[in-house]
Each structure stands twice: as C-alpha cells, then as structure tokens.
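User: Can you help me understand a structure? I only have the sequence.
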Amino acid sequence: MITATATEMQNNFGKYLNFVMSGQEIIVTKNGKEVGRFIPQSQAISYLTDSLTGILKGEEDVKPAKEERLREKYETAD
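Assistant: Let's start by predicting it. Here is the structure, written out as tokens:
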C-alpha cells in the first residue's frame, strides 16, 4: 500500500496510475488525513461487497461491523 499527498498525486498522476495498474493501492492524504483511495478495478467489486457484509447478515447497527470488517481486510488508516 502506497500513501501520497493530494499534491503529489496531482503532480505525478501518471506514476501513481501505473502503481494502481500494477495492483497497488494508493491512499491519498490531504493535511495529514486520508481523503480517498485509488484501488485496482479488480479489487473494487470485492471492496463494495465486503462493505455490505453487515447488512447482509441482518445486523441492526451496521456501521461498526462494516468499519471493523473493512479495517481487517484493507487496514483502514484513521
């Protein structure tokens, strides 16, 4: 997993796009906080279905369950 500031992404987009195309995940930060991620297309569907796991199990308060599962799989940076 690679971390880059928004300015670095803007100034070197081609470089980071090549990282994503080779299977790397890019965490984008602004003022020291994570604001987004660029992930390979092959991981996008997995990420979306994993985020629904709590809903599909019928849990009433899905946000904590969703965050925990995503953190476990994708090591979410806080």
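Now, to help you interpret it: Residues 41-78 form one domain. The mean pLDDT is 81. Let me know which part you'd like to focus on.
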